[in-house]
Amino acid sequence: MSYVDLLPSLITNQMVVVSPGKILQSPFPRWYNPNATCASHGGVLGHSIEQCMTFKHKVQSLIVAGWLTFQEDGPNVKTNPFASHRGLAVNVIEEYEPQRLKQDVITFRRFILKALCEVDIICFDEGQGGYLINTPGGNT
Description:
Layout: H1 3-12, E1 33-38, E2 44-46, H2 53-65, H3 102-118, E3 122-125, E4 130-135, E5 138-139
Antiparallel strand pairs: 1-2, 3-4, 4-5
């Protein structure tokens, strides 16, 4: 709902009143629009109701106070959490498979490391305390 549509409803329910706005003189602020009028300020030139900060703050204070609420026309999780279904049919069956544990990956890495050592692609260097890759010219 736009502020233009909201203003007449708030006036009818006596939640806001049209207050005359200040007529600005030159030099005008940067936000000043000579082609726009604000219905909340009695049609004063300079801004539209959509850019009127005074009106926006008033609407926000009414919402915070609980005097103004907005109802949605469509389905809403708060008012109707489940859509109405016809019949008692099951649309989806999902099976759960537990994820592999991280320990399985570590075991797999150890297997690969052992296999690489057996085919002499890598070797363990006790002096450096780690594995080295065997190259044709020597260890790196």
